């Protein structure tokens, strides 16, 4: 048998085993995605009630309220929280988030970056791997890189608590979050969102909520409204940060599932091609052998 | 009176209850049927629920909020431990 035949057969074997791996990874991602989506749905009622409570209090409030988290200052010191995945093999998912984060630092906060006043906080290893080389002069906080190992509320809110404390103390003037927003299993959108100070179009804006005075029952507030608000706002911030992380988690698995699905399909196509090549080579070899035999026989008879 | 207990991770209790004791930041209090509408912040302490059949259930929390409106009680709590 010719050497070409053997070569093609080996290639088929290797493509086949690769396909098995990508198929398995796709299945694993699909089940992880389901769990990640479930986590998002399970936190939604809590977030919604918290929001409702907030609106309720604000609509019962006479006049403005103050919170240390809505103070708009000139952004001298900025933190960018980059949420990526811990592992690769999920297509361009991480690259897209890193691109958004880098663009934010280089364009919007170019001055702060030049002065070394941009702090990067990393959740997930991939972002850190790339950005530490790109911005060697910036401060990098890496103590939360392994956050995905434990996605409990307490663990996730340790990150938001850290930036909120720094913001309140004036150590930070602005906090941005870059993450992959989950649309569906196939679509994830890399986004940069302002986390602190709380933006006015957010639910914390009293002017939006005064329109919705439907729930103006005669509530007893304990302790008073202002104090309740100062307790509620951090909880709402933690919850919204938790949403970023959980969203990103679901996105990661969605992206990996899509990437692995594509890889499996590609392997399928490659196999088809290789099989045709293999058959061609086999036929060629047989024809050659036959003609050799016929030629040999003819020579003997002659 | 209907009660729903939510944590940031999931819903942990839902059902008809007789009474709920909660650790308010200004001191603990108990919610019975037809309680006046209230929104209160909760400190760390124990929550005791007596359900419609008289069965007790209790757990501790680190902090949270409670809202009562028209016999609907929503408890939003963090750091739940049995």
Keywords:
heterodimer; A: 302 residues; alpha/beta; Pyruvate Kinase, Chain: A, domain 1; 5-stranded mixed beta sheet; 6 strands; elongated; B: 82 residues; mainly beta; ATP Synthase, domain 1; 8-stranded mixed beta sheet; 8 strands; 0% helix; 68% strand; globular
Please outline what is shown here.
With 302 residues, chain A is α/β, with parallel strands linked by helices.
Outline the structure in words.
The complex is a heterodimer of chains A (302) and B (82). Chain A has seven helices and six strands. The longest helix of chain A is centred in the C-terminal third of the chain and has 77 residues, at 225-301. The model of chain A is unreliable at 205-213 (pLDDT under 50). Chain A is elongated. In chain A, helix 1 (3-60) packs antiparallel against helix 7 (225-301), helix 2 (93-108) crosses helix 4 (125-134) and helix 5 (153-168) packs across helix 7. Chain A is α/β, with parallel strands linked by helices and 302 residues long. Chain A has one domain: ATP synthase, F1 complex, gamma subunit (Pyruvate Kinase, Chain: A, domain 1, 3-Layer(aba) Sandwich), CATH 3.40.1380.10. A five-stranded mixed β-sheet of chain A has the order 3-2-1-4-5, with helices on both faces. In chain A, 62% of the residues lie in helices and 12% in strands. Chain B has 82 residues and is mainly beta. Chain B has a single domain (2-78), classed as Sandwich (ATP Synthase, domain 1), CATH 2.60.15. In chain B, 0% of the residues lie in helices and 68% in strands. In chain B, strands 1, 2, 3, 4, 5, 6, 7 and 8 form an eight-stranded mixed β-sheet that branches. In chain B, a hairpin with a 4-residue loop joins strand 5 and strand 6 (56-61). Chains A and B meet through helix 1, strand 6 and helix 7 of A and strand 4, strand 7 and strand 8 of B. Strand 6 of chain A pairs parallel with strand 4 (38-42) of chain B, so a sheet runs across the interface.
């Amino acid at each position: 048998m010719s050497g070409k035949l053997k070569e093609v057969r080996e290639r088929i074997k290797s493509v086949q085993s690769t396909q098995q791996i990508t198929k398995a990874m796709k299945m694993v991602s699909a089940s992880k995605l389901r769990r990640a989506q479930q986590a998002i749905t399970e936190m939604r009622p809590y977030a919604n009630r918290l929001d409702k409570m907030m609106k309720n209090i604000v609509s019962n409030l006479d006049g403005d309220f103050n919170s240390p988290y809505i103070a708009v200052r000139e952004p001298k010191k900025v933190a960018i929280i980059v949420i990526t995945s811990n592992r690769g093999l999920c297509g361009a998912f991480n690259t897209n988030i890193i691109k958004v984060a880098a663009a934010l630092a280089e364009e919007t906060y170019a001055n702060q970056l030049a002065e070394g006043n941009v702090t990067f906080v990393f959740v997930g290893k991939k972002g850190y791997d790339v950005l530490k080389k790109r911005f060697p002069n910036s401060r990098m906080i890496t103590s939360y890189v392994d956050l995905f190992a434990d996605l409990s509320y307490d663990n996730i809110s340790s990150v938001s608590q850290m930036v909120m404390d720094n913001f309140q103390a004036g150590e930070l003037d602005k906090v941005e979050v870059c993450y992959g927003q989950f649309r569906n299993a196939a679509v994830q959108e890399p986004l940069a969102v302002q986390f602190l100070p709380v933006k006015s179009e957010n639910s914390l804006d009293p002017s939006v909520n005064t329109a919705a005075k439907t729930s103006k029952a005669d509530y007893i507030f304990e302790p008073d409204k202002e104090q309740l608000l100062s307790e509620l706002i951090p909880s709402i911030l933690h919850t919204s940060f938790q949403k970023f992380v959980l969203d990103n988690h679901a996105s990661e698995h969605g992206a990996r599932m899509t990437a692995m699905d594509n890889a499996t399909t590609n392997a399928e196509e490659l196999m088809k091609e290789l099989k045709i090549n293999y058959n061609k080579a086999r036929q060629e070899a047989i024809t050659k052998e036959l003609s050799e035999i016929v030629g040999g026989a003819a020579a003997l008879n002659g | 009176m209907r009660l729903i207990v939510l944590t940031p991770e999931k819903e942990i209790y839902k059902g008809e209850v007789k009474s709920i004791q909660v650790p308010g930041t200004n001191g603990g209090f108990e919610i019975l049927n037809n309680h006046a509408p209230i929104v209160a912040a909760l400190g760390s302490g124990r929550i005791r629920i007596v359900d419609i059949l008289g069965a007790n259930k209790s757990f501790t929390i680190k902090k949270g909020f409670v809202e009562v409106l028209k016999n609907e009680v929503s408890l939003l709590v963090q750091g739940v431990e049995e």
